[in-house]
Structures are given as structure tokens and as C-alpha cells.
């Protein structure tokens, strides 16, 4: 759609600012079970023009209402009562979460209308596999997967609203502060159901810079001083966490994890249904989100390939929702980006190339690290590469199935394999903090499992009889890769070579090195 194209070309900061402002004009309503949509909207419109709205299921039907004017919320709040506290006492915090019930439900029940509910979670993989089996190309299969899993417009609005509701508390102490989402909620690679990572930001830079120069005095606030920034962060998060826990409607299971490398507060936000992590501003994490946003916007194949590889990795147990020695989704995404930089011609530019395109306003040095890169998407030349996703997926598995992990590391700044600076099994350079390996957690067995699964997948894609499988209504292409391979398949590998005389299969085996069981250990440096 045209609207889609327009939103795609805005800079990351423009999109963020717009959505944060939108969230400030938004309320969330728990609706009565017998709902007449027209009546509800009609009533709400008496408080001001409604810019957009949608309904979703979460312990009953809920409506997200975005007003055109912020003062419509105050008008609505004036009309809303405080719950009668018969058996409970209430904390009298007036939020933007309301419950509507019908005054005389019996007479109004007849007027119930069916409302369209926006899905807030993706379909199970089993259902996805059936959908994929009917598609006519792997490329189409990948776009179907992307469409099923990616965040919807409605879900993104809900994420920004969750941040905005936390901000209402932070503001009680720090009136200028902002709460902004980062990571998968905003980098175009989030899937429905992923957590909301948010951070508290105190830097209102613009306002400050203009006023400082005037007048004969150097002026500054008297502020409490603490021995370290970390301590300040811990104190602020501790108090905001207590506040959410004690006074915040719908904030449950609040956990303060203040001794982590990056102190945070974890909580569940029942009204929106999100798991959230709140930390204090981390400029480098924002830059990473923006970099991925840029890559995701440059070419539709980028997101299709990332979503596909992540789903594949999850199905085969290569990634895991709990931290451990598995490859993380972030590492996997960086591997896909690196692979796309290495195509001929490249599908996306290297980070160094994006840095060369940066102008003055794009210059950012954070904690001694140069995090500059171009923010204006129109300055980046579109790729001349016309490869299909079918070819890219197959080549991705082949590329990493034969990558020399023993010797080489993955560097997105240069878009080149460079010698490993240290002996971690998998070494992926942090794009900004150049001395860090983002995949330091990955151990040898996990890397070997990744390589073996990639090889097996390349094999399946190349030997498959697509037409036969489609006639038999069997999963084919991507669908066949999303079914766990099971133990029996290792022995099948040997059998596959029997009775296949064709040269292509033989050269395929050479390239995949499957005919030599030791090659796997060699490639990953056992």
C-alpha cells in the first residue's frame, strides 16, 4: 500500500517520535461483553474526534482508542468514576485504562454487534506449515511466513501505549523523562508476542541546547550527586519499579533485577498482555535498533530472510527463549545481515559504507565508540541484486554450512570475514562496541548443531522433488524445513547417496562435504 511505502521511508527517529506522540493521545478500554461498536464510538466521540481505533481479545474484549487531541482524554477522565471499594481499597491513581459496563445490560443485549478483533499473536507453526504447503514458490512461502509473524500496526500501537503508561509514572518524579521502546518492538524484526524492551530517557537535548547560550551566567541545577552512574540507575529503577508495583493498575509480577550488567525491572502488563523489561537509557542499544531498522527498510528480502531463518532456528532448537549457550536471535540476525552484505552485488551496505554517507547530524560518539551512520534512507542507493529468496535461502544454508568458523569471524562494519581476535567458537563483532563479541555465549556443541542443521537444510532444498511433493500434498520447500529432522535423518544422509548417479548430486555432496563425516568437526574446529 502507499501508506506502507510512506511510513517505510521515514527516518527511525521520525517514526519513533510520531508513535510516542500518538500513544499520548490514546486510552485503553475494557469493553462490556455485549458490545455495540457504534454506540461505544458514538459516546466516546462526544469527548473529541477519534483518529483511529481497534478491538482485541485479552480477558474479554478491549478497545484501543486514539483521539485526535490530547485534551479529549482529560474530558473523558472527568466523566469516569472511581471503583466502589466494598471489599477492596483502591489506590487512587487515575490512569488511561478504563472499564466500561452497560448500565442496563438486558435492554442493550439485543443490540450486540460483532466486532473485528485484531490478532495479537501469531498462528502456531503447525498451521503455518499447512499454509506454506499450498504456496507455489519458496519466495512466496517466505513472504507468507513474514506476514503471519511480523508485528501489525495495531500491535505496535499497543507497544507504544504500554511505554506511555509507564511514562506516566516516571513523570511524577522526572517531568521531562520519556519511556521509549527499543529492540525488536521497533527494529522491524519483531514477531507477534515478543517482549517489549523499554528504557527511561532523561536527555531532552533540543530544549537544553538552545537556552544555554543566553545571558551572562553559567547556570546549572543543583542535583543529588552519587559516586557512579550505575548507582543512580539502580536507585531510579528501584523507585519506579516500586511505584509500578504498588500503584500501577495492571502492572503485575514486578521483578527488580538491579545487579545485572544492565540493571532492569521486569514486569507483566496485563491490560496490553505484554511482558516488559524497563532499563535506563542505553544509547548504543538504540543505535543497534536504528541500524536494523535501516537494513529492514532497504529491501523486502531482508526481513523475509531474517524471519524465515529465525523460525527455522527455533523449530530445530538452535535458539531458545531462555538465555544459555544457544545462538541468540540477535546473533542470527547479524549472520543474515552479513550474508546479505557478501552477495554479489551486495543486497545491503556495510556499516562502514553507511558511515561514509553520514552527515553532521548523524555523527554520534557514544562512550568513546563511533556510532555514526546515515539516518536518511533516501541517501542509500538501492541494490542492483535481483536474486530470488529461493536462491538466497538455499545459499544461506550452504554458506554457513561451509563457513570456516575455526579461523574466521563475522564483521558487519567491513562486510568481510576477518581472523578471529580470540578463540570463542562463534565470533560476531559487535557493530558498535568493537571489542565485544555478541555471540560469546555460544559453545562448540551448539555451533556444530547449527552447522549440521544448515547442511541438512541445504541438502533438502536442493534434492527435493517439488512437483511430486505438491501432488502428494506433502510439505515442500520451506514447509519441509520447519519440521524437526529427528534422529532418523542422520542415517538417511548415507542412504541418499545410493542410486543417485547424477553429476549435480555428486557435486552437491562435495560442496556440502557430507560424504566425509569428519569434515563437520574440521569446519568448526573440534
UniProtKB/TrEMBL annotation:
It holds the Pfam family PAP_assoc. Residues 138-296 form the Poly(A) RNA polymerase mitochondrial-like central palm domain. InterPro entries: MTPAP-like_central (IPR054708), NT_sf (IPR043519), PAP_assoc (IPR002058), RL (IPR041252). It comes from the Eukaryota. One of its GO terms (biological process) is RNA 3'-end processing. Its cofactor is Mn(2+); Mg(2+). GO terms for molecular function: metal ion binding; poly(A) RNA polymerase activity. One of its GO terms (cellular component) is mitochondrion. Residues 391-426 form the PAP-associated domain. Residues 11-79 form the RL domain. SUPFAM superfamilies: Nucleotidyltransferase, PAP/OAS1 substrate-binding domain. This is PAPD1 protein. It comes from Phaetusa simplex (large-billed tern). The lineage of its organism: Eukaryota, Metazoa, Chordata, Craniata, Vertebrata.
Amino acid at each position: 500500500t502507499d501508506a506502507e511505502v510512506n511510513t517505510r521511508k521515514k527516518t527511525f527517529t521520525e517514526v519513533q517520535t510520531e508513535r510516542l506522540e500518538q500513544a499520548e493521545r490514546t486510552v485503553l478500554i475494557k469493553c462490556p461483553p455485549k458490545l455495540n461498536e457504534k454506540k461505544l464510538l458514538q459516546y466516546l466521540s462526544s469527548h473529541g474526534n477519534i483518529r483511529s481505533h481497534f478491538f482485541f481479545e485479552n480477558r474479554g474484549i478491549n478497545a484501543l482508542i486514539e483521539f485526535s487531541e490530547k485534551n479529549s482524554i482529560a474530558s473523558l477522565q472527568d466523566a469516569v468514576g472511581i471503583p466502589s471499594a466494598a471489599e477492596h481499597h483502591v489506590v487512587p491513581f487515575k490512569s488511561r485504562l478504563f472499564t466500561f459496563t452497560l448500565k442496563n445490560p438486558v435492554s442493550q443485549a439485543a443490540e450486540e454487534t460483532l466486532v473485528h478483533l485484531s490478532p495479537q499473536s501469531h498462528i502456531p507453526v503447525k498451521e503455518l506449515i499447512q499454509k506454506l504447503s499450498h504456496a507455489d514458490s519458496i519466495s512466496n512461502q517466505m513472504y507468507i511466513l513474514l506476514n503471519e509473524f511480523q508485528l501489525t500496526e495495531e500491535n505496535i500501537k499497543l507497544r507504544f501505549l504500554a511505554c506511555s503508561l509507564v511514562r506516566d509514572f516516571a513523570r511524577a518524579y522526572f517531568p521531562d523523562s520519556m519511556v521509549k521502546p527499543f529492540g525488536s518492538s521497533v527494529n522491524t524484526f519483531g514477531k507477534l508476542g515478543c517482549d517489549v524492551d523499554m528504557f527511561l530517557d532523561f536527555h531532552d537535548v533540543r530544549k537544553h541546547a538552545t537556552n544555554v547560550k543566553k545571558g551572562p551566567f553559567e547556570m546549572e541545577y543543583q542535583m543529588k550527586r552519587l559516586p557512579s552512574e550505575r548507582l543512580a540507575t539502580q536507585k531510579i529503577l528501584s523507585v519506579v519499579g516500586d511505584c509500578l508495583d504498588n500503584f500501577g493498575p495492571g502492572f503485575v509480577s514486578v521483578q527488580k533485577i538491579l545487579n545485572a550488567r544492565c540493571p532492569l525491572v521486569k514486569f507483566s502488563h496485563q491490560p496490553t498482555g505484554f511482558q516488559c523489561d524497563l532499563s535506563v537509557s542505553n544509547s548504543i542499544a538504540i543505535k543497534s535498533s536504528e541500524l536494523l531498522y535501516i537494513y529492514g527498510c532497504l529491501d523486502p528480502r531482508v526481513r523475509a530472510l531474517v524471519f524465515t531463518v529465525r523460525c527455522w532456528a527455533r523449530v530445530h532448537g538452535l535458539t531458545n527463549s531462555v538465555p544459555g549457550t544457544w545462538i541468540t536471535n540477535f546473533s542470527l540476525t547479524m549472520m543474515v545481515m552479513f550474508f546479505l552484505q557478501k552477495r554479489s552485488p551486495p543486497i545491503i551496505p556495510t556499516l562502514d559504507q553507511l558511515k561514509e554517507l553520514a552527515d553532521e547530524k548523524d555523527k554520534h560518539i557514544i562512550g568513546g565508540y563511533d556510532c555514526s551512520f546515515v539516518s536518511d534512507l533516501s541517501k542509500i542507493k538501492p541494490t542492483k541484486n535481483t536474486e530470488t529468496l529461493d536462491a538466497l535461502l538455499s545459499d544461506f544454508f550452504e554458506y554457513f554450512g561451509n563457513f570456516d568458523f575455526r579461523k574466521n569471524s563475522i564483521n558487519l562494519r567491513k562486510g568481510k570475514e576477518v581472523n578471529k581476535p580470540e578463540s570463542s567458537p562463534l565470533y560476531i563483532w559487535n557493530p558498535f562496541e568493537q571489542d565485544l563479541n555478541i555471540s560469546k555465549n555460544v559453545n562448540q556443541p551448539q555451533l556444530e548443531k547449527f552447522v549440521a542443521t544448515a547442511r541438512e537444510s541445504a541438502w533438502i532444498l536442493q534434492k527435493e522433488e517439488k512437483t511430486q511433493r505438491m501432488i502428494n500434498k506433502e510439505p515442500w520447500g520451506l514447509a519441509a524445513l520447519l519440521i524437526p529432522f529427528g534422529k532418523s535423518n542422520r542415517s538417511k544422509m548415507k542412504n541418499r547417496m545410493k542410486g543417485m548417479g547424477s553429476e549435480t548430486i555428486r557435486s552437491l555432496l562435495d560442496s556440502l562435504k557430507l560424504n566425509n563425516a569428519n569434515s563437520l568437526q574440521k569446519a568448526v574446529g573440534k
